[in-house]
Specification:
Blueprint (H helix, E strand, L loop, with lengths): L2 H16 L16 E2 L20 E4 L7 E4 H6 L7 E4 L4 E6 L1
Parallel strand pairs: 1-5
Antiparallel strand pairs: 2-3, 4-5
């Protein structure tokens, strides 16, 4: 059996095991096999370089129609939006209502 079929079969088994008396999980926002966490894991090396905002630059280039170079002020002057979504990590944790 290919690895992806084993993975799917395992997820189905976990989902069935989690159901009691055939009832669906009350919190269907957390997929079978996932665990809800309240703290977003920060995975870094602890190195946080100081970058003067005057030196900060975002460059969008490559397979784009128009290359874009933005400094910090130009970047922050762009239209802003906020989104609240659930985050599901492939390492089997979920955090709900992330801003």
């Amino acid at each position: 059996m290919p690895d992806w079929k084993k993975l799917i079969a395992g997820k189905i088994a976990i989902a069935k095991k989690g159901n009691s008396a055939g009832k669906l999980n009350a919190n269907i926002r957390v997929p079978a096999g996932q665990t809800e966490v309240k703290n977003f894991p920060v995975l870094d090396l602890g190195v946080k370089p100081e970058i003067a905002l005057g030196n900060w630059n975002l460059r969008v280039f490559g397979l784009v129609e128009n290359e874009l170079n933005l400094g910090w002020d130009a970047f922050n002057a762009m239209p802003q939006m906020s989104d609240v979504s659930d985050f599901h990590c492939v390492t089997r944790w979920s955090q709900l209502d992330m801003d």
